[in-house]
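Write out this protein's structure.
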Amino acid sequence: MSIGKNIQQLSNSLPEDVTLVAVSKTKPVTDLLEAYEAGQRIFGENKIQEMSQKWEQLPKDIEWHMIGHVQTNKVKYMAPFVSLIHAVDSLKLVKEINKQAAKHDRVIQCLLQVKIAEEESKFGMSKDDAWQVISSEEVKNLLHVQIVGLMGMATFTADEVQLTKEFHFLKEVFEEFKNEYTQLTTLSMGMSGDYALAIEQGSNMIRVGSAIFGERNY
């Protein structure tokens, strides 16, 4: 099965309001080009250096999403081009993104990562911490960063009851926040193994890697 065919099948099966982020981390530029030729324009990477290298080599109408954990000292390397940062998990990081975006006269969109998984290894803020960030006067006055939604990573499990519970929780948080902040339009949850469940629970952005590119090469 080719990458192009995978993209087409996946795109055809998704509801119209769901955005597909092709998770291309560790994949060679040739693979990304194959997906690009099939019409894919949004790619997600989890390492800033790798994403920067690919950005330099690939067509400039690609939207780059940073989906991995972000260290504040690395933000400057992606500030010239990144479209959306999924895993924003502190006020300190929001302020750094604003500072670096300002240098390039850009507005960088961000999602606040809320911890929904039970695994300790997963990053993310509690619901209350996320609320404190989005409602802080400091954030409201930042001109070069825009919080446009929430992101969550579910527990790595085949237990659909558990996954449904976690996705449902994030959807509820999203709706609650959206009542107050109408600019929140994106709910990023669901990956290759669980995106169908995530969409059922209200996700409108999914991050899919192996179902497009095959298993990851480490």
